[in-house]
Amino acid sequence: MKAEVASALREIERFRGKRVVVVGDLMLDEFVQGDVRRISPEAPVPILEVKERGAMPGGAANAAANVATLGGVVSVVGCVGEDAAGETIRRLVGASGVDVSGLVTDPSRPTTVKTRIVARNQQVVRIDHETRGPFGADVRAALADAARRAVAAADACVVSDYGKGVVTPELVAVVVEAAAGKPVVIDPKRPDFGAYAGATVITPNLGELEVAAGRACGTVEEIIAAAEAMLPLLGGGAVLVTRGPGGMSLVAPGEAAVHVPARARAVFDVTGAGDTVVSTLVLALAAGMPMPTAVEVASAAAAIAVSKPGTATVTLEELRAELQGGHEP
Q1: What is the CA radius of gyration of the chain?
Q2: 112-119 β-sheet, strand order
Q3: What pTM does this model have?
Q4: Residues 145 and 171 sit within 8 Å (Cβ to Cβ)
Q5: Which of 230-246 are b and which e, b meaning 16 or more Cβ less than 10 Å from the residue's Cβ?
Q6: 48, part of any domain
Q7: Number of domains in the chain
Q8: DSSP 263
Q9: If you count Cβ atoms within 10 Å of the first and of the last residue's Cβ in the chain, which end, N or C, has fewer?
Q10: Residue 45 DSSP code
Q11: Rounded to an integer, what distance in angstroms lies between the CA atom of residue 284 and that of residue 13?
Q12: Does residue 8 form part of some domain?
């Protein structure tokens, strides 16, 4: 085991009690599961015989839930609609110990819901109910006020941008100013990484990096070059490129690039894995881990998340077992 990971086994205990605020786009992840045994006589499509339905917090709500299961004290700032899905999000994340007092309700638009139709563990189709685009001035002001208060009282912050309208350059600036040097981890969606100036680290996936850089990245060297080209936009922050089975690549100003290979685990479902990465990373940084060690720990958490069905959370006990070389049954 690498020395930094051995050290991390001791340091992850410091996750407990760290105060984290998650700012961003909340959504409800619904799953409709069943069996397909025949084709519809009405159209050449499969008929799903529904066996089970369920809902889990998604997006920023899933990131917050992950912080909670990893031992952090977490609050969430975002927006939901005045509807049943919004109430379900409040109930689900509240039940996991997340402070939802920073949630703003916008009666003019629905809560984002992603419904996944799954047949025998194979996703058939996804149905999205959402309204994209900017919020009204009153909602933007309420979000900024809630973020300012929550971040000032926290040890670290996650900004979870899913492109649904909550995260704007103006809101990022509010978060960075309120953080006053505390770790700010941003999961980006905008192709202009300059919108995230002041972040400690942003975590684009490979596709998002390629769009932002305007070039394909087929090799590790090309990934490093593209990430390095983004660094001036961040004003001192780092870029952590998540590459799925290719692992993760950390590029920071003035430092040699660090590559963390993906851990060998059976991949069941990648839904929400990015939320697990940012949640673990922010807690590790809040606990004082060096960035490369924090990335190793986040990689271990991601390996656990993708081995679970649906939008999964990871516990501190599971993370400890993974770092030790095994995993919880």
Answers
A1: 19
A2: 46-59, 26-39, 112-119, 122-129
A3: 0.91
A4: no
A5: bbebbeebbbbbbbeee
A6: yes
A7: 1
A8: P
A9: C
A10: S
A11: 10
A12: yes
Question: How far does Cα 154 stand from its chain's mean position?
Answer: 18
CA triple 100-104-109, angle to 5 deg? 130
d(CA 165, CA 159): 13
| DSSP reduced 3-state for 268 | coil
pLDDT tens figures, 98-117: 999 999 999 999 999 999 99
C-beta separation of 17 from 71 below 8 A: yes
Angle, alpha carbons 96-325-318 (nearest 5°): 10
Residue 328: inside a domain: no
275 belongs to the catalytic site: yes
Strand partners, 117: 32, 125
Choose, from 29, 161, 187, 275, the residue flagged as catalytic. 275
Q: Does residue 193 lie in a domain region?
A: yes
Cα distances from 284 to residues 97, 130, 177, 291, in angstroms, run 20, 33, 21, 8
Higher pLDDT, 8 or 46: 46
Rounded CA-CA distance 279/256 in Å is 24
- Residue 203 near residue 282 (C-beta atoms within 8 A): no
| pLDDT single digits (tens) 267-301 | 444 555 889 999 999 999 999 999 999 999 999 99
Cα gap 201→281, rounded to integer Å: 9
Q: Residue 144: give the domain boundaries.
A: 3-323
We report the CATH number of the domain holding residue 28 as 3.40.1190.20
At residue 55's C-alpha, the angle toward residues 66 and 148, to 5°, is 45
Concatenated DSSP letters of 151-217: HHTSSEEEEE--SSSS--HHHHHHHHHHHTTS-EEEE--SS-GGGGTT-SEE--BHHHHHHHHTS--
Are the CB atoms for 279 and 158 separated by under 8 Å? yes
